Amino acid sequence: MSALFFSSFDVSRQAFYRSRLAGAIVNLKPIVPGHVLVIPTRVVPRLADLKHDELAALISSVQHVGKVIERVYGADGLTIACQDGKAAGQTVPHVHFHLLPRKLQGDVFTRNDDVYPALERAEGRLPDEFRQGPQPLQMDADEDRKPRTLEEMEREALWLKTFFDAAAAVESGTEESDKKS
Length: 181
Prior knowledge:
The chain is globular. With 181 residues, it is an alpha+beta fold. It has helices at residues 52-72, 115-124, 126-131, 150-180, and strands spanning 5-6, 9-10, 15-18, 22-26, 36-40, 77-81, 97-102. The termini are far apart. 38% of the residues lie in helices and 16% in strands. The longest helix is centred in the C-terminal third of the chain and has 31 residues, at 150-180.
């Protein structure tokens, strides 16, 4: 499969889900465990720049990835966010949706809306941190979170990919049994 870019950054090793028009990658600086991004495969800065089929594939991928992430991380719901344009806090010029697994009890954020300032702080520092060398993993939601290493992100992506591979195998098995019926 061809390389997957997030703006000008090759994120192929961080990808755990791919369709023809969309992909999902683990996050450089997750706000909560399981915080991932869903992106169109074509580098497009704004939501309005997507073609209809790309938008449909992107939203379908948000839904599909969200279901798996919610189950895998034992979440009760998801925060799904898209900062569309610089005025909205977008710092990487590539459409992307943040998917954050959330829990009714034991969530990182005691006040639900505290997730939004944390997203804004994290998003504001991303371009510089993409260019920095490896950093240690830290999962808390404060502004001192450091970017993860490529190896850490790749490990998580490979692990998450197993859930999508298993789902695809079940679906193809179902399709095969449907054909025989």
